[in-house]
Fold each of these.
Amino acid sequence: MSSTTAGPRSAARTGRLPNRLRSLLDAAVTPLTVDDLLDHFAPLRPGAASGLKGRIEAVEAETADAATIVIKPGRDWAGHIPGQYVRVGIDVDGVRLWRTYSLTHGPRPDGRISITVKAIPGGAVSQYLVHQARVGQMLHLAQAEGDFVLAPPRAEKQKLLMVTAGSGITPVIGMLRNLYSRNESVARAAYDIVLVHSAMKRDEVIFGAELRAHAEAGRLRLVERHTDTDGLLTTDDLEAEVPDLAERTAYACGPAGLLDTLEAFYDERRLTLHTERFRPTVVDVDAEGGTVTFTGPSGATVEADGSVPILDAAESSGVLMPSGCRMGICMGCVLPMTSGAVRDLRNGELTVAVPGETDPGGVKIQTCISAAAGDCQIDH
Amino acid sequence: MTTVTNKVDNPIAHLTPEDIEAIGAELDAIRQEVLDARGEKDAAYIRKMVDVQRKLELGSRAVLLASVFPPAWVLGTAGLAVAKILENMEIGHNVMHGQWDWMRDPKIHSTTWEWDNASTADGWKHSHNEVHHTYTNIVGKDNDLGYGIMRVDEEQRWYPAYLAQPLWNFINACFFEYGIAAYDLELGRNLRLPKEKRSEEFKRNLKATLKKVRKQATKDYVVNPVLAAPTGSFLPALAANFTANLIRNLWSHSVIMCGHFPEGVETFELKSIPEKETRGEWYLRQMLGSANISGSKLMHIMTGNLSHQIEHHLFPDLPSSRYAEVAPKVKALFEKYDLNYHEAPLPQQVYSAWHRVVRLSFPNGWLATTNAKNLPSQLKLLFAMATADKRKRRVMQRLLEGEARKLAQAA
């Protein structure tokens, strides 16, 4: 008995001194904390004040417009399961932007993680990561998330179908690398995999060589389709290519159109399909005004005109709002918008918040000069 | 100085309402240019500034651990004073204005920043960003005009107590951070109220400020000296912290005085401000109510770019590092509309601001009519005015002003 109670007590004792030292040092540097200062010297250490960060260790071109970014994560990185995604925050043109990317390696012995990014035309973050990101640069990370993962090996062989298109291959490559880099014979015995992958053309297939090598080695059956010659992948194609489709647990990742079609197809047949989506519904930024919902204690809903500041609209509906100069200079009215779009009434500039893409705490907006440009949610 | 509308030669009389709106449009265009250009370089600038400031402060405090040695004391104190000035001016003041909010970095954001100063970030953002920047130089509305303790305008009635205002101003300069904290709380007004009539908000703010003051003082006057005690440097470190705070206070007080106090900066009458002031009219008030300090790049950084006070008041939310490049465009606009772009080197502006404080500590016209020869009789007059009742004082005041006018006409 005594040994079980001694454990926590001694842990508390060893924890106390650093804590005392910490509060002494915090008192020496207030209003900062020691962690704020240590961030300037060791941003990857555990307990960093500015949150979990990572350092870019390599940028490897995959195709002309796709690259793999290898990242050394901070010490607080809790690890991931292949197939999961990570939210990455990077400063593009000085502005912190967050996006979600699949992790494209299983847990690596060197502790690095990687994401593979396809540069989307006009995509601020993807273009930046593929073409401008440099080794040594820091980025912000959230912990890995997502349940798009394989079931662990079972006694009998599991039959799997993976349907991917374009950069939808990224979570799947993470799974495959993890399976075959460790104990190949175990993996071969546990899974029977068919991978149907669709891409624009052959040389645009991200990880093309690696996938073909897996197929040649007999680790999986690869059905490669190129839309320039074969057209878009249809469910008829899929049934033709994979006759035993009904026996296979299915995983799909790709553009919304493909996933919608597959979901309808699988629903009809009452079969299981795991999907992974990257692009949530796009905000209708052209809408004139919209409904502003205040999440949090105020809990109000306000119909706001596209030409009236949210502050005014909310106040005339009786919402208690923080306010200041009412002309966009004092920042007394700033609130975080968790989703939606607002227009700066001064110059028409749009600010957009997309859950899962922009800061989870919300994008801070000045309500006194921002009008709703579509429905939005504001934390207040 | 007299409010613009009460002046004999009103400096904006030649502007039509259309001119004023055109000025507004041109300033909006200058603002937009910066918004379109701002990006990675600006972000790198403020991050570098924060990095340099923190390392300088940390290094200086480390040196002060051995401040029993005089060279270490001098070096550490100087470094700490510079670090505190950078933190308050180029970083804190500007971050709290929201100049860097566009980066969406929660660590460098107006809503999360707390500064190395006795006043709380929340208190400061209210009294400075909201009141002072919105009601700039409106007599009776903008408490920055004399901080509610000084006479800074001819139109404020003179009382004998104002004779001591140069002294008050100097004491305020030495303990400026506490002055600001008291000012943010509107301490004077609130303390005059009976206890039960003070608002909940005031009590809350007072509590927050006292907590902040305690933490700040504990850091500078207890914890850091105690850390230096093993080398026998307790007292030297304490003195170093006090000196660094004193230097920071004197410096920031001087810079801020230069922004709105020098002779020639205009003030405004509340009743002359239209109920719905247009953007152009607001811009114009900022243009005339501020004064710049000319000097080197280092000087601009050490003033938190408040040396570009005019540009700062026009565009309080633009990154401070951009003021220098917009200044020539703003200056050209002043010239185009025949307005006075108030700019002078630091010593000149400090002298001018102090001259005004001294001049207005006396009754209107007293300093102008005083010379070495008539000093004894003038002092007698001053004594008489100070001890006279209200009515007699008013008569003497009128006579004095008449004399000053005659003197001005003769010159």
Amino acid sequence: MIAQNIGFWIIAIVMIVAALRVVTTNNVVHAALWLVVVLAGAAAQYILLAAEFVAVTQVLVYIGAVMVLFLFGTMLTRARIGTESDLNNSYKKLGIPVGLVMFVAMGLALISSFGDEKLPQTATVVSTQEISDQIFGPYLLPFWALSVVLLAAVVGAIVLARKD
Amino acid sequence: MIALLAEVPYWGQSLLRVLGGLVAVLLPAGTIVYVFLFKMMSFMQSRLGPMEAGPYGSMQLFAEVGKWLQKEDIVPDRADARIFKMAPVIVLVSTFLLVVVVPFGPEAWFTDFETGVFYALAVSSISVLGILIAGWSSANKYSLLGGLRAAGQLIAYELPMVLAVMGVVIQAGTMNLQKIVVAQNTGSMFGIDAIGHPYVISQFFGFIIFMIAIQAELTQAPFDMPIAESELVSGYMTEYSGFRFLIFFIGEFATAGVFAMIASVLFLGGWGVPFTWFGWTSVDDVANWMNFVGPLIMFTKMMLLVFIIMWIRFSYPRLREDQLQRFAWKGLIPVALINIMVTAILKVVF
């Protein structure tokens, strides 16, 4: 178990440093690439938890699709090489208290629901088949609802992008 | 590999895995470049190709690699140097991550990953990131255009690729590449056991869509708009020289080899022969010598598929950018969706 703990701390520290660089760097593309490091770190943490399906989904959706589209969009519109000085706007000071409130709220929620409770050491590996049985069994209705939300988003994007 | 290496310590196994990965990536890449790019293309154009270095020019590749390694490593003055240097490495790393899940024999695999196909599709999309930032960091409008074209193309063709694979996953009932191989070689078709059940027959549309999609993912002609030399100099690779260009070059043909291996696993039965030939009933019965013959069978199937890819590459002119997008979104994706529906219905009925 100790090897996993060391791995967790290394990945966690890399993620924190990368997350700080996302908001402090002076270049849009650099910020996006630091965000890729954070998301890859999250995928690595899922692997440590033996949740390989979630980890692969994280890579496919966030690194392979979301970040690529993000970089694509910024490169098409505004992505200069070198430092940009006007990346921070006047809401920067508001962001710090909001971030702190979020951190405290989520920390309290975690402590109040788990406290000193320790997860069982013999972690059972949930296979992909069991996940699909759960999604298409007891969780079918929420799954459908999410699909409708995504469909609405897709239709909305088309409506916004149409010229006529 | 686990059974073969049971006595080897962990660090030794890891070292052997790394060496095996290097061989599995670089050997097909070198063979593809020599056999197809140097020789087949030359014969198709009525010329001899390289003849001087070694017998029939077979050492030409080593000469080329030596030449590239000697060249100066140039970074454009206004480029974003750190990212410029990082980009080719990201592309090559994605290829090495891809080969990890490919099974080469009953016990000759690097890792027996339960969500193998899904993983392969996920890590293959990482290379887009490398190509995009290569185009951006070069500080060159042709590079940037090439990078953007590549990203648009790879996103558009990743979708039909995923959908084509879905048909195979439905038929095999698993995402594990090793189990997909076993399912094809233990199955039977039309009541005949002797040919097994290669999915190239029952998933013919899936196979065609998958091959077109990997042709586009590899940016081989007729889908080579990202590096269109008559429009964009050399696209995202314009500013690269020396060993960084070499990394892109190896990445292109190594990825071709690995994608062909994955296609052969999904549709042609991978490393296996129909198990009934030798009276095997499951993967545990398979004789030990298949661990050595399996990779060779796999290599033959890979060469066959790469031959098709290269044949099309050398035969057809480039599509236009809008034709490319329309072909993916209005042609391949609807056909792939219908293929999934029909496969699912037939799977439930039979």
Amino acid sequence: MGAYVARRFLLLPLVAFGVTVLIFALLQLVSPEQRAALFVTDVKQLAQLSNVIRKYGLDQPVYVQYGMWLQELAHGDLGWSQTARMPTSEAIAAFFPATLELTIYIFVPVVLIGVWLGTQAAVHKDRFVDHFSRLFAISLRGMPSFVWGLILLMVFYGWLNWFPPGRLSLEADLFTKSPQFHSYTHLLTVDALLNGQGWIFVDAIKHIAGPALTLVLVEMALLVRITRSSMLEVLRQDYVRTGRAKGLAEPVVINRHARRNALIPIITLSSLLFVGLLGGVVLAETIFNFPGIGKWGAEAAVQLDIPGVTGFAIFVAGLTVLGNLAADVLYAAIDPRIRLG
Amino acid sequence: MNLQRRLAVVLILVLGVTLATFTGVVQGQAVKNPDTFVYQSAGDVETLDPAWEYDTTSSATILWNIYETLIFFRGGRTDLYDPMLASEVPNLQNGGVSADGKTFTFKIRQGVKFHDGTPMTADDVKYSLLRIMLTDRDAGPSWLLLAPILGFDVQSTRDDKGNLIPDIFDRANRAIQVQGNTVVITLTKPYAGFLSILATWSPVVSQKFVAANGGWDGQKATMPKYNNLPKPDQMTLFDKANGTGPFKLERWDRGTKTVTLIRNDDYWRTPAKLRRIVLQNVEEFGPRRLALQNGDADMISLGGLVNLPAVQGLPGVRVVDDLPQLGNSPALFMTYNIDPEGNTDIGSAKLDGNGIPPNFFSDIHVRRAFAYLVDRQAFIDQAYRGKGRVANGPIPFGMLGYAPRGKWFEVSKDKAIAEFKEAWGGQVWDKGFKFTLSFNTGNVARQTLTQMVKEAVEGLNPKFKIDTRGITWSTYLQQQAKRRLPMFALGWAADYPDPDNFTTPFMHSTGTFSGPQGYKNPEVDRLIEAAGKEPDPKKREEAYLKLQELAYQDVPTIYLRYSVGTLVLRSWVKGWYNNPMFAEGYEYAYRFSKGQ
């Protein structure tokens, strides 16, 4: 297993190289002038268009531009992200903790409730809870997340004023930037507790609640459906019948014997979900003005912020490799028949 | 009680609570954060460095909150000034302006301190002006001082190949002299709009502070190192500030795109009433509107008139519209010599009914015909909810040279037909034409315009055909710069409140618009250059009226609308007023306070 993990890690630079070459190649499809539009945003700067192209080497052949980028990389620099207003590596470091925190608050309830509800639906097939979960899944999954986001924002911020957008309120933000507050993890809820500041914790939770709720509702639906079908499959197996026949308690049959075997597709889906969330919960972050990495990545892509997009893509590619690796390791842990090697 | 029933009860309870809270929230809000002003904008600050910034959000943030200029606009006027860091506004009477209009003498105010407590001196003023001129990044604001001081042929510190002009430091250094407590600026040629430039483009920074933080020390030898830097954060004042203004920079949090300013208690005038200014970037209009409704934001950017109805009638919210602005936006330009190379926009590139020749618009009858077809008021009504003034020339309403009764083409199908029949010796009418009219996707106003032009033109003759097409903003700019768009719609807002800042880009043969458009009239060029130098406002006005007359006669461009502003703020914000040069609304937060 160790060798397997190491091999996967060795893949990372290769993946990063592939991704960056792909991005630079794709960028050649848009003209230098279009790429210069990142720096020339106002009509007043139009006369300077050709100077900007020359300054940033935007009309150079692709290998020269890639070479320039590699040179910066050699200096430990992923380039200047014009959309983030900071170097790309700093941007990743600045935006990622917010998304990671949000992802955790989405992922945990999605998996816990989703698997529970899916199991219940399978066990009580064609009963109320099954119908309810199906209706729930179809209606939530059927509506785009930005519609949900806007509705939740309207209700929970516009009407109730419970879950405001942003990451912290004004006072809390000022306090966390003051010397009295130490950042240990950059996850605000965790740091708040480590600093013994309950009110910051509450404030941060209130800000996470909006985007988290939006995505929990949408993402859970899929997991409920997958868990249900996977469980139904397993519940028909002989060993489940055997378990019941030999007089095992129903919870033991369901939780220990059936569900464990139904977990493989759930793990696959969960790992994809986790990586997907980390890589960009763009719409929820944008609607709730949550300063995460997805919002930045999308903005960088739209504005052709080349260093920004490239850095973001490398980062997400890395996450995906790691996510898949985690799923593989989990398979082996859950199913002894699977051997990594 | 079974599960269904229990669920129903819970649902009803939740609904009840929701409605009860909703009705309770709206009425009688107390002032939130009474000593903090929160502005939410769709844009974000690009840099805090006055020598780099050339966008409205950055500019509004630092000017006149952190940094101050030598002179400042008097109230809502753009043609009268009050002294700010100069102790009086130079003019002919007080000897501050020489009789030949070339020399400007500024007495520098004494006793003004930078935020770090060091005194502001005449040397700082000179340094600040030189710094803006000589750091000169591509597509930056440096030309705004270079051109009037060193002559309008000097738009940059570099030649066409991008090499630094060898004597540029010496020339700038000679033009600006410190004599005791005064700064004397000598222009190569007189320029009547110079004071109006300085009212915006003379923010004073601390030379010591910049040098101590690794920036340019003001010396000739080190200057090239700081010229045209590639990355904004290489400029010292990118994220640091040490000005003289009523607010100090507390923090620029780029992670949340928030700038926080805090009151300068050692300000040279009475300190500001507000303790803190918070400028947040919230891209979506929905959250901005809710923040305004909940009192979390005191002022928001509207982000397009399409959002106007969503803020009208909100309790506790004030919507101020029809605010005078100095903008000509948009105007519809016709390209005299379209680049035909692989250009599908002009079809066959011939006058055969399936395209237009590259010089289609060089025929004045074609241009006049189009001008007769565009209903400017209908366009303003449809695209801007009626907000804006009908335009009839390059110089906007409220500026010297604006022609209130300037001639323009009335809407007339018959006259358009008559012009088309004369165009290209009658061939246009007989054979017809076809071309593509583009707009940048997402710009509903320009999309409306292209649609209106298409309908008006195609309604005249079944052989006339215009395709409309949405392209991205970057493609639009690229195509325009390369003379590939047969017609294009773009707008202009004043860099400084002088008619020259409009006649040059719109009409001079080297102008931002007229250049690529291919419009060249020697008489126009001569008038623009003469009017720029003329110190007598009466004579200037005559020249500008003549220029507007020529804009009508030559009609290279169809003027449509002079822009107006709309501001949305909580009614508890006091002390706000408009100046046509303010783009965002919080430029002069010094006067602001909050109270019922």
Amino acid sequence: MIRFSGRFRSAFIIGIQGIRARKTRTLLSMVSLFLGVLAVVIVQAGASIAERAQLANLELAVGLDGTKTMGLGGASPQVGPIILDTVKGRQDAMALVGMQAIIGEPGVRPVNPDAAPFDGSWGHSAPMVCDAVGNCREQTAQESGPEGQAIEVRLTAVTGDVRKFRPYRPVSGRWLDFTTMPALAPSLVLNKEAAKGFTTHRVPAEMRVAGASANLTPRFVGVVDDGDSRPRAYVRVDELSHWVPTTKLIDPSFGEVQVLLDAETPVEQVLASKLKAVNVETYTELINSRKDQEKELAMLRMIFLAMAGLVLLIGVAGILNVGLATVGERVEEFALRRAVGTPRALLAGIVLAETLITGMLTAALAIGASVGGLKLLVTLFGDSEPFLQGLAFPWDAGVAGIIAGLIAGILGGIVPALRAAGIPIATVMRA
Amino acid sequence: MTALIQLSGITKVLKGQQQPRTILDGVNLDVHAGESIAIVGRSGSGKSTLLSVLGLFDRPDHGSYTLSGDDISRLPERRAAKLRSSHFGFVFQRFFLLKHLTAAQNVAMALVNGQGWLPRRQRRAKVMAALDEVGIAHLAKNRPTRMSGGEQQRVAIARALVRQPRILLADEPTGALDTETGTLVIDALSAVTDRGCALILVTHDRDHAARMGRVMHLDAGVLTEQAGAPAGQGGRR
């Protein structure tokens, strides 16, 4: 151990001396290696950030990993009251009910039938109408009425603060307040697409919801980013229930009904039992987006890492080239070192120490540059790109950079090291 | 008294050419502690090869080489390196100082060689003692480019002495120096015999050879003691 320690220290000291003696060469080999390590760090960081962004969008759409979603199979007038009674006031279970709503002039065709995005990417089709058994068809022009100042949105009524399961990002205003008494004029939180529509089109504050006893007067209280490209609005179930009977509000045959649950909540079993009693089957799914995406992301990451590896190889070739040239120049030094008792292994260690130190220094610089670059990116574009907000440098990219530096140091140094170890001592005698 | 070094029937043949050439032909040599020996001979007579064999740079093809009674004729490289570090010091015609290191760092090179580890303070003390021994302690922080040839060779001698070797091998150490400086270098080399270190000097200079205890003549690979050589000033016979 002592011998190893002595050799390690000797290699380190002599390696540092060698680097200091050949600063320009070291710098030149660092330049190409820097680009290679930087490529690895950027790819790794990019992949981590992309993974995070992709998962963040999935979290908005389907929920955080570990959340359970309960769907319903079958219909019964008792479904609404059962679900509302069971999840009321609970934080570990919430119900979401999706339906169509039109806000604006009555008796006109909305500017975006079927709650289509406002950019026209869905084309301009006529609104759909479905009968009781689920057969749907496009409405005729007479049925849908003339186009007027109205906007159709997907309305999601929620029983509690659903952001615990789906972390909608606030854009402006506030989220729904569940601590107050339910108001007769329901508060609405719009998603970004809906907000865009209401900014572009001036419409009267009159909302029509299927099954409501009267038209409602909504109040827009905030805007969130929910990752949905369709215009959507969120409302408290209890505020909507002033106008829509619970039996109609939460009815799988009229709209989407979904219950979000904590993984370990007892509500799942209770609710499933209650619904089974009224002949409504439930099916629960555990959200694990990370695992689902893993394969796809791993493939993507491998492709980019392979590209970065190629760039790194160029860096390795640079360090190898400089290393070989340096050993060629230092033949007498290495022969002399052997003459004074330096073992071959230590000579190889000296050369490897130099390339490893160079590799690690370069890796540190590349990681530093990446951290700085990311900070600059967040500072410059953090406001316009929400996924950049609060973004920190992923540690695995730093580790990848260090490993890349180590590999480059070893690959670039191994051949010069072997060559240095093989220099005959007689070189100094014949000089 | 047991010889420090005992060469017996050492033969070295240079192969790889059209016809093998015998460089050393049955060389016998006993070297005692504190003894100084000059080896003289024409260029190509095998002086440097003999020094290579003595310094464990090269192995003899035949014959035996004992050091303090141990046969080291067929030593593996790892053990040879250890022995070179602990028993031998080398001085060459060219000084082989590293330009990017100071005189002290050049001397320390022999201590930072993977054969044991000395703390910085002890290392520095040994380096300064070696530089002081050859009279250039004041140049410790100078780089070789700012030194004269004589000073550089004395740094090389300090490097050879810093591990306090038992045998000092010098291959034409004054070849690149003027007469006066060469004499100073030989003075520094000869002084090591006073503390029991054996000195083997390969030289073309008759005056320097004459200062050694014995003068050996190498001709066509055959080593003979030069008859009537005067007892030198440095070292004992």
